[in-house]
Amino acid sequence: MSSLSGQTVGLIGLGLMGQPMGRNLLNAGADLIVYNRSPEKIGIMVEAGATGAASSQAVAEIADMVIIVSVDTSTLENILFGENGVIGVVRDESLIIDMGTSDADATRAFAKKIEAAGGRYIDAPVSGGTVGAEQATLTIMAGGDAQDIERARPVFDVLGSRLTHIGPQGAGQVAKTANQMIVGLTIGAVAEALVLAKRAGADPAKVREALKGGFADSRILELHGERMITENFEPGGKCATQCKDMELALALAAKVGLDLPGTALNRELYIRAIEAGWGGLDHSALFKVIADNPA
Amino acid sequence: MSSLSGQTVGLIGLGLMGQPMGRNLLNAGADLIVYNRSPEKIGIMVEAGATGAASSQAVAEIADMVIIVSVDTSTLENILFGENGVIGVVRDESLIIDMGTSDADATRAFAKKIEAAGGRYIDAPVSGGTVGAEQATLTIMAGGDAQDIERARPVFDVLGSRLTHIGPQGAGQVAKTANQMIVGLTIGAVAEALVLAKRAGADPAKVREALKGGFADSRILELHGERMITENFEPGGKCATQCKDMELALALAAKVGLDLPGTALNRELYIRAIEAGWGGLDHSALFKVIADNPA
């Protein structure tokens, strides 16, 4: 783990991902200044050694480098441009790093506004879930100028195990959308295969075991396949979040005039999961949608 | 590689999979006796050191252990029970090993008929494609009695790197169906994600690179993702075969009263590929179906 000793880093958004990321930054020696809408999470991080701030703006006032881990595009917009938002104190030294999942077009618009105010902006969403955040093994997909990404590299080295510079601002979010599409659709694939195997009298645990190492092998088969077999749907990533990610993908596809039939169907299946009351369960609970849905 | 020195092994079906499997059996020292409908392929294997037979029956007459690698269920049925079929010479020592892809219910019916004639029957389909067949790294999914599978183990050790005993006769074919579903659906997932990334201005090669090691990682992203990026659709597994595999899955699902919406859609997309004249291309050519299909 690289050392961030003496470096001030801002962190806005202390949810399932932000909290473990913040702990890793503290462990690496950073002077961490944090803000979150619900104050009890600020308290948890202050106890861990961070400095609490009264607003997003207060974070950006003290820290030149500000990481934002927001749950969606509108929350990010509010952090940047809402009341007591980051924009009010942006200066030449400011580097804003969006590590949440946001709309790619909105990313480009947000970046323009931050740059017009004198600051720098990169999008660097992640894959790997809470486990990856805790173990600092996140995959980071970055969009923006190379020199800005290099400036953030010591922080990325602390948070993840893999950094890919995809392209200009927004490209990180495009890669993240692609990532979420593959995750949702592969969960659907494994769900249909394991439900059918079970229904046709084969032990799904043995089927999953047999498929390892072959063409059907994937991280989803390994992790989410296991969750389906044990029917343990504690999240991890939630069905409701996965559904929202598929909507982001379909919105982006519509903008570029592309039909994504698999993604559209996958979104419908996640809507069924939410309607069944499973929106808060792990996204692998798509297994239940397939299993409970006789022809 | 285990030695099969002095052991007589029969092999019926010398296609893209059967030929390299036969070479590995010869390299392990087996006395290999082969048959294929088109005689030029018998000639190729005779040149490599095998003994050619005049019919499927002639193979089963000489070899106690007979491997069949047929392209579909009806071809297998014909090899077993058609004119000059295996059934005519089945005896107590006969072990019939179906390593092709067949219908699970038909497998159970075929096994009963072979057993009624005194022989033994296991299904042991594989995953790993022609590369896996050549490198002897196939994943083998076996259905049948444990002692029959143990008897075939020296042969499986020569042909593959992984053997899982799924359950009774037919269970291997159920696992293979699950495998093919995941393969087809994951190809669809990667195709939609990479086409969208490209259309939205991100370099799909960089996106694929970024996704490695994360939740979206899979053998399909690795192998078929590469084929999509370079647009090299030499098969590998063909679109027409993948379509047939999805039909097998849907037929099995209908028998157990299960609706598989993703599999049904995937089959439709492969039908579009075939209608566009791409049935002979690699199954990763689903990329072309998505790319050529504006909203």
Notes on the protein architecture:
The structure is a homodimer of 295-residue chains. With 295 residues, chain A is an alpha/beta fold. Chain A has two domains: 8-167, 3-Layer(aba) Sandwich (Rossmann fold); 175-291, N-(1-d-carboxylethyl)-l-norvaline Dehydrogenase, domain 2, CATH 1.10.1040. The first copy, chain A, is built from 13 helices and nine strands. Chain A has helices at 18-27, 39-47, 56-62, 73-81, 104-116, 129-135, 146-159, 171-199, 204-211, 219-230, 239-255, 261-275, 286-291; strands spanning 8-12, 31-35, 51-52, 65-68, 95-98, 120-123, 126-127, 138-143, 160-167. In chain A, the strands form two sheets. The first copy, chain A, has a six-stranded parallel beta sheet, sandwiched between helices. In chain A, strands 7-8-9 form a three-stranded mixed beta sheet. In chain A, helix 4 links the parallel strand 4 (65-68) and strand 5 (95-98). In chain A, helix 8 packs across helix 10. The radius of gyration of chain A is 20 Å and the shape is globular. The first copy, chain A, starts with 7 loop residues before the first strand and ends with a helix. In chain A, 60% of the residues are buried. The mean pLDDT of chain A is 96. Chains A and B meet through strand 9, helix 8, helix 9, helix 10 and helix 11 of A and strand 9, helix 8, helix 9, helix 10 and helix 11 of B.
